[in-house]
From TrEMBL:
It holds the Pfam family PMI_typeI_cat. The active site is at residue 198. This is Phosphohexomutase. One of its GO terms (molecular function) is zinc ion binding. Zn(2+) binds at residues 103, 120, 178. CDD domains: cupin_PMI_type_I_N_bac. Binds 1 zinc ion per subunit. SUPFAM superfamilies: RmlC-like cupins. Residues 244-318 form the Mannose-6-phosphate isomerase cupin domain. InterPro entries: Carb_Metab_Reg_Kinase/Isom, Man6P_isomerase_Firm_short, MPI_cupin_dom, PMI_typeI_cat, RmlC-like_jellyroll, RmlC_Cupin_sf. Its cofactor is Zn(2+).
Amino acid sequence: MKFYPLQFEPIFKERIWGGEKLKTVLNKAILSNNIGESWELSTVKGDVSMIANGEWKGKSLMDAINEFPNEILGTLVYKRFGTEFPLLFKYLDAREDLSVQVHPNDALAKKRHNSFGKTEMWYIMQADSDSRILVGFKEKSNAQQYLGSLESKTLLSLLDDIKVKEGDVFFLETGTVHAIGAGLVVAEIQQTSDITYRLYDFDRVDANGKTRELHVDLALEAINYDVINTKREFLKISNQSNIVVDCPYFITNFIPLDGKIYFSKADTSFTVYMCIEGNFEIMFEETKYKYIKGDTVLIPAAMNTFSMTGKASILEIYIS
């Protein structure tokens, strides 16, 4: 079997807080004015990505993995996770504030939902002036204070409110209370999980006048009430992989590409590239594959050597 860089049909999600920037900023062919998420690469049940290019076009990612687990996932990833693809890649457009929410850790998610937990990171791709995020508590808190703040509608006053700009990165371990603020386009890398506990939704109602479900009690055991630093600083040295996040679930590097880079990779893990600015080409076995801002590409573990050319900002993600 000849392996090659895989792209996927994006899975668009309408959200009460979504908008049109996935089209205007990221070139996505959305047909609605309230698309909040583009799932770029997913094996979440009911939302499995379909391959969009090459010989495997029309085949699902899960079918490809089941047929060639070591070659797609990598020997280390397959040994650790079996045929489960362990990460989920998204772009988000927050026209309005997202709900204040929290994600459970692996142990709690396994016990309650038979799922992975949801450690995640955000790269801010575009930010309107005065855009902000909510992440964690300003001061150490506890369950009693959290519940009291919900009753008095003062939860936001307990949370750290951070103004953000393009290029900022935030790493959110499970248990971190958070909300993406209005006016942001975000690249999100996370464990394969769709488990979210919603704490507060700004008293919004949908088109039918209904509020969205809250999960106040479920969140009690999931929340980390400590003060945590979520922002990540990183180098931006041209034409090399600069470490941004190194955690047990994924490694994310930032590549400021300006020219050409040659890659030689082990067969232990797949690699994913997210083009967050500019455009680039991958040359593999005398074939060129072209990518623009907003594209996401999966490099199977069996693709050991290739080159990358262009002028772009790229996120590089793999598992070690």
